[in-house]
Amino acid sequence: MINFQYSCASDVTEAIGLLAAHSGAKLIAGGTNLIDLMKESVEKPTRLIDISRLPLRQIEETGDGGLHIGALVPNSDLAYHPLIEERYPLLASAILAGASAQLRNMASVGGNLMQRTRCAYFYDTATPCNKRTPGSGCSAVDGLNRNHAILGTSAFCIATNPSDMSVALAALDAVVHIAGPSGERTMGMREFHRLPGDTPHVDTNLERSEIITAIELPPRGFAGNYSYLKIRDRVSYAFAIVSVAAALEFDGHAIRKARLALGGVAHKPWCSVEAEAALQGQPATTDHFARAADLLLQGARTYAHNGFKVELARRAVMRTLTQAANASPQSQAHKKIA
Amino acid sequence: MNGYVGTATSRVDGRAKVTGAAKYAGEFAADGLLHGFVVTATIPRGRITRLDASGALKVKGVVDVLTHAHRHPLADKDEAWKDEVAPEKGSPFRPLYDDSIKFNDQPIALVVAEDWETAKFAATLLDVAYQEEPFATDLEAERGSATEVQKPHEPRGDAAAALAGAAIRHEADYLVPTEHHNPMELYATTAVWEVDRLTVYDKTQGVQNVQKFLCSVFGKTPDEIRVISPYVGGAFGSGLRPQYQVVLATLAALQLKRSVRIVLTRHQMYGLGYRPETIEHVGLGARPDGTLDAVVHEAIAVTSRYEEFSRNDTGWAEQLYKSANSRYSHQLVRLDVATPCDMRAPGAASGVWALECAMDELANALKLDPVELRLKCYSDRDQSEDLPYTSKQLRACYRQAAAAFGWSNRNPAPRSMRDGKELVGWGMATGIWEALQMPVAARIVLTANGHAEVSSAASDIGTGTYTIVAQVAADALGLPMDNITVKLADSSLPQAPVEGGSWMAASSAHAVLAAAEDIRQELARLAVAMAGSPLAGTDPADVILSEGMIAVGSDKSRSVSIADAMRSGSLERIEKEKLNHFAEDKSHARNTHSAVFAEVKIDEELGVIRVTRVVNAVAAGRILNTKTGRSQVMGSVVWGIGMALHEEAVMDHRFGRIMNANIAEYHIPVNADIHDIDVIFVDEQDEHINKLGIKGLGEIGIVGVPAAIANAVYHATGRRVRRFPITLDKLLS
Q: Residue ranges of the Aldehyde oxidase/xanthine dehydrogenase a/b hammerhead domain (chain B) (predicted)?
């Protein structure tokens, strides 16, 4: 642990002002990831700006039939909120697939979007890591990379984003509300996280003095045909090897709208409009699911220990689409895969 | 003697543990207590060329930084560093002794501060530089450098020739990865300093072992260092040897003349001992009817460069399966890692997995039912010494476990059973462990109010020693358990070795029994001699202690109370201390046995494995407490599931560092991974082993479980995975 200054922001403007004034500052809400990283000397903020008391804990309906979720709503409150359970069960399911009850109670929605990779080299300061120390090299490319990315990787970083919630938010086409020194703006969830490129130390497109204030869910919730399937090495309290969020809307037997996102395979939730388009207007058959899976995984590149992930992801996509089409979503309470 | 022994008695320390009243090593307080934070090496081999603590020493609250160049004297002879569990050969690791780095995450400095956070922060300010040296940490790459260190048993016949000429032959390598104990409680020591002595609260499986070790390392006498460890939050073998934090806490206390506490981090726990990565080579040669003609078992295991740690991985077939020819060998590869140590069923958990997997493969090749093959090869004698067993109810284990499991409904063909999208597999394996007993002494102090305090230096590492000692004492003294107080794990109490090897139940119970017998004799003498005693004229040998009274064995109505008898002798207390005694018996082999049956369900497309049922039938002599015993075996089964499916310390051999040194990434089963576990205690009366017929339960519950699961995975999928853990990628590739 390192020494740091502490400020408690009383409103969003003050939080932004503090961020702008202190270049080494970081926001803290639930702290479930940041505190761990500070204990490991991976994150060394000079100042923590406590935003846990900001008035960002509301879940409200928007004028167009969507939902506006304050950035500080705890993950568990969101997962068990009646409107989420009823209209966005895919999101509830993805949240409950992640972490543990204790962590979900503490973790905020905004913080979940900001959590950092669990790459072992990122966590171990005795090894090189471009994400932790830019320019030091990537230990995973030629190292232990069984859990690493197969899509959107670069020579600089093959880490994955660990969030389950973000995968569902990407599938649902959620919008991130952001406030900063120059005012407010929004960003699509699919654009929020970045690929590593040659700057893997930058996880998101959030500017340095900006703060997430809310997540907005569009009206379309896919409550009838959805599923979140997370494949991992033990059935709870483990990060995804591969996870799939699938959401379908039918017009008779034809798929009217399809949404797909993958977790555990890239530096961000992995989506493909081509894969989604390939399903639209088609019947829910294995052939079409396979075609969508192939499109989603197009360009996959594997490393020494994660070659199995491509076929696993392909099968997981097909299974999740089948669950969604059959309106038999994967239960997060009963761990047997439906 | 009957009453509490053999019943499902709740833990006497259960309430203290769940309410937090039970204090662990890192929870003891002292005036002016200082806190130490350990700084560890980031390379696996080399020398420290710079260790500059000036930045750390400037931090307010930092008292000192101990290093190899700045420390109180430590013993310089290897013998002084050899605790009672140390390997015979080698030079034990000495923390902060010199500038050499022998393994990654080796302690190189101790920052001592007024509070833990300050110590931890200051530790980040140390300026360390190394001269790195070439190193090797990869067992498979270094396999060629293995040297034989031990033959568990002399060869019988010509196993190589018999194997080569066998009608049916199976040979394969099985790989056990490095596994860490991960007890819930972190290793911790609180060394309380006084001018003329130290009281050391330590997480250990043996307080007197730690006491002797500290005395020899620091040149102290036993009256200057007392070691106490009343509760241990799991150890599983990792606490058999004194760990480095007890040396560092003692060192700092002596150097600074202050009390010092050190609690290791979870990451630092991966710099202690572990179950060594081992390549197990098994060869079995059989006739078409299943008769074994050859057994070859060779183990190649990791040890450190500075000590030779080895256990019996390979000799188990000698006890289990008749074969005219056999050969066993244990080889070591010396790597730049810390010395391995015992971990639950050391040698057997790994070696029996390989043997029992190989037996399953042989059964398949022979088209024999796996149980039938084992019955066909069943050995009623230990072949290495050609001895009968004190008892061996293994046939009953197979029978009862198979019946409870429903084994007769198994379709033997792989991939033949399914449940929806899941393939179903049923597998089984045999388990075996040793029934050991060691010298342990107990003291009983009986007071006239009918209360007894029973004490011994023996440990309770969560196994239930407090409870079984109280049960045995209550029955032997004829008192209710509420009248028994048990004190353990203080080096000033009567002698006991480390708690391990499954020997403490039998050893401590017979120590209590021996001391209680001396109490009985004293009470009988008093009762018979009392004026007007209803026991007058009775042979003291016929006097029993029952229901709080001293009575004639054949007529319990003739009795006097303990209080009256003691008052007649003007005694307030009777104190007896006795060492247990076991008759020497070289004419029997002593083992516990088990039969484990497991069901797995595996998603055919995705490879996700669930262990949906385990039946473990254990024959381990008399079970002192069916409740704590059942819990102990259930815990073992859970660990066996973890060994088969989850556990692996993953090392990056470019850095010689374990990359998943935390319990988020080093996987053990979580609750949701565990389904039905059925524990059956097979009735086994053993009149040879010891008076109470006790064999011990600590290890046997895990042995066989990993193999039963691996065999079930094969039956489900037709795929044989010989490299633990069995993760889904190994089924998909």
A: 19-134
CB atoms A233 and B727 under 8 Å: yes
Q: Residue B2: pLDDT above 90? A: no
3-state secondary structure of B515: helix
Chain A residues inside the 8 Å CB shell of B663: none
Closest to A117 (Cα-Cα) out of A108, A130, A106, A102: A130
- The alpha carbon of residue B421 is apart from the nearest alpha carbon of chain A, in Å, by 8
Tokens of A224: 């009838």
> Strands of A5-8's sheet, edge to edge?
A5-8, A47-50, A25-28
**Contact between B573 and B583 (Cβ < 8 Å):** no
Q: Give the per-residue pLDDT at B102.
A: 98
Q: List the domains of chain B with CATH numbers.
A: 18-134+184-235+239-269 (3.90.1170.50), 278-436+586-732 (3.30.365.10), 438-579 (3.30.365.10)
Question: Looking at chain A, which residue has its C-alpha nearest residue B671?
Answer: A236
- Chain B residue set in contact with A, beta carbons under 8 Å: 42, 117, 120-121, 124, 421-422, 601, 603, 605-608, 610, 645-646, 650, 652, 654-655, 657, 659-660, 664-665, 667, 669-673, 727-729, 732-733
Whether residue B280 is predicted with pLDDT greater than 80 in this model: the reply is yes
Cα distance between residue A310 and residue B451, in whole Å: 69
Catalytic residues of B: 699
B652 and A127 within 8 Å at the Cβ level: the answer is: yes
pLDDT of B152 reads 75
Asked if residue A51 has pLDDT above 70, the reply is: yes
pLDDT at B153 over 90: no
Instruction: List pLDDT tens digits, range B163-195.
Output: 999 999 999 999 999 999 999 999 999 999 999
Q: Which two tokens stand for residue A298?
A: 């197009």
Q: Closest CB to A127: pick one of B120, B655, B733.
A: B655
Nearest to B732 among A120, A311, A335 (CB): A311
Interface test with A, best of B132, B178, B424, B606 (most A CBs within 10 A): B606
Q: Within 13 Å, how many C-alpha atoms sit on residue B513's CB side?
A: 19
B665 and A118 in contact by Cβ < 8 A?
yes
Closest chain B residue by Cα to residue A144: B652
- Sequence-distant (6+) residues with CB within 8 A of A78 are A59, A69, A84, A91, A92, A95, A109
Q: In this predicted structure, what is the pLDDT of residue A1?
A: 65
Q: In order of start, what are the domains of chain A with their CATH numbers? A: 5-52 (3.30.43.10), 225-325 (3.30.390.50)
Local confidence band at A334 (pLDDT 50, 70, 90 cut-offs): confident
How far apart (Å, rounded) are the C-alpha atoms in residues B617 and B637? Answer: 11
CA nearest neighbour of B252 among B69, B27, B60, B71: B71
pLDDT tens, position by position, B219-274:
999 999 999 999 999 999 999 999 999 999 999 999 999 999 999 999 999 999 99
- Is B177:B706 a contact under the CB 8 Å cutoff? no
Average pLDDT rounded to a whole number, residues A243-265 = 98
B640–chain A nearest CA distance, Å = 14
Mean pLDDT (chain B, rounded): 97
ipTM of the complex as predicted = 0.97
Residue among A337, A257, A272 at smallest CA distance from B423: A337
- Comparing CB atoms, the residue among B117, B120, B657 nearest residue A124 is B657
Quick: pLDDT tens for B79-109. Answer: 999 999 999 999 999 999 999 999 999 999 9
> A306 to chain B: nearest residue by CA?
B729
Residue B179 · residue B277 · CB < 8 Å: no
Q: Helix, strand, coil % (nearest 5) of chain A? A: 30, 20, 50
Bridge partner list, B111: B37, B65
